[in-house]
Amino acid sequence: MKNMFSSAFCIIIFCTIGFAQKPCPGIPSLKYGGKIYHTVQIGSQCWLKENLDVGVMIDSAKSQTNNGVIEKYCYRNNPANCTKLGGLYQWNEALQYSSDTIKVQGICPKDWHLPDTSEISKLILAVNKNSKKLKAIGQGDGAGVGTNNSGFSALLAGSRGLNGAFFGLNGYTYIWVSTVANSSDAFDLYLNHGTGNIYQSNSKEDYSFSVRCIKD
Question: Which one of 1, 17, 144, 216 is least enclosed by Cβ atoms within 10 Å?
Fold first, then answer.
């Protein structure tokens, strides 16, 4: 009886509310920066299913600057990787140098913003603290293989380091959070290929990570 109740509870709570893999009501997709993005409703939150790929690619040896132009890095300086994985952005570029850190539009479309720590915590609870439910099918391995039950479709897109080198493709992903951690760091969502754990870590703002947007 206990197992039957647990199964029913899972079906009612997570499958119909958290894991329905349905687009957000009235917003199945949107066009932004010449690219089509799709949406997914996860609990009470509406997310873009794809990493942002907006802006002009610059060489990884250069820093992104506050010059009125959205700049992005493509993994290994290959534009095809931006198309597949989304761009990589330094934290200040992602926020477009905003002094605010709550519901910051940054490089997101109008009426969307970068998630803050409270919104990331809500997402983590919605998937029962299991990163496999966030990872796209084909992402991860062993104990961390993606099932994408939530429809979030996270890609292990790697990152750009402080020296301009790229690391971690198919090994991990970091997704920027708008919340400041300290004078030089900001928070991020971290998923690793080989574990089902989800981490809220903090990293130097000059690292370059993926960006996901959540609806206002």
Answer: 1
Residue 91 pLDDT > 60: yes
Distance CA 84, CA 76 (A): 13
> CA–CA separation, 73 vs 96, rounded Å?
15
Tell me what the pLDDT averaged over the chain comes to.
92
Structure tokens at 133: 């439910």
- Cβ distance 33 to 82 under 8 Å? no
pLDDT digits (tens, 9 = 90+) for 96-135: 999 999 999 999 999 999 999 999 999 999 999 999 999 9
Count CA atoms within 13 Å of residue 13 on its CB side. 10
Spell out where 49-151 has E strands.
Answer: 56-57, 71-72, 89-90, 112-113
Instruction: Give the distance, in angstroms, between the CA of residue 173 and the centroid of all CA atoms in the same chain.
Output: 8
Residues in the chain: 216
In the 3-class helix/strand/coil scheme, how is 164-202 assigned residue by residue? CCEEEECCEEEEEEEEECCCCEEEEEEEECCCCCCEEEE
Dist CA 142 CA 146 (whole Å)? 9
